[in-house]
Amino acid sequence: MNGSAAGGGGGLAEEEISLTRGPSGLGFNIVGGTDQQYVSNDSSIYVSRIKKDGAAYLDGRLQEGDKILAVNGRDLKDLRHKDAVELFRNAGYDVSLKIQRRLQPQNGPVSHRGDGESGGLPLAAILVPGLALAVAAVWIVLRYRQRM
């Protein structure tokens, strides 16, 4: 289960990750493929979700947004999504992944489309400033009324 960083891919860091299939598989979902591009003009396969307590989660190295370049030495380039899924299903018990780390969230997938989560702002990012404005407005009204 050792990972090693390697150069390549236009200067982006590549890493080999070995996972042992658990009761629920490898413990992550993928998106992408030639027929379902997840990133514009890029038919690569990406990790869309790490399942809690799955093999990938427990290992800790694979991250959402990582690009999967190869499975057990088999290049994933130019595969349809269903063919990539089939490759993962038939990969065996011990699976070697060659991945490319996302550098910044804006350089790769930024939402988990299709798994019930929205890619919008968190609710707190909207409520906290709104609540602060409401409190300030009430304070201004009360101060104005005191002066009258």
Counting structural domains, the number is 2
What is the CATH class of the largest domain?
Mainly Beta
Which class best fits the helix and strand makeup? alpha+beta
Radius of gyration: 22 Å
Count of DSSP strands: 7
Q: How does the major sheet shape up? A: 7 strands, antiparallel
What does this structure look like?
Strand 1 and strand 2 (14-20) form a beta hairpin. Strands 1, 2, 3, 4, 5, 6 and 7 form a seven-stranded antiparallel β-sheet that branches. The N and C termini lie far apart (73 Å). 22% of the residues are buried. The protein has two domains: 4-117, PDZ domain (Pdz3 Domain, Roll), CATH 2.30.42.10; 121-148. 26% of the residues lie in helices and 24% in strands. The protein has three helices and seven strands; from the N terminus they run E-E-E-E-H-E-E-H-E-H. The chain has helices at 55-59, 81-89, 123-147; strands at residues 4-6, 14-20, 28-32, 45-50, 67-71, 74-75, 94-100. The chain is elongated and about 80 Å long. It is of the alpha+beta class and 148 residues long. InterPro entries: PDZ, PDZ_sf, Synaptic_Scaffolding_LAP-MAGUK. Pfam families: PDZ. Residues 16-103 form the PDZ domain. Keywords: Membrane, Transmembrane, Transmembrane helix. This is Synaptojanin-2-binding protein.
Write the layout of secondary structure elements.
Layout: E1 4-6, E2 14-20, E3 28-32, E4 45-50, H1 55-59, E5 67-71, E6 74-75, H2 81-89, E7 94-100, H3 123-147
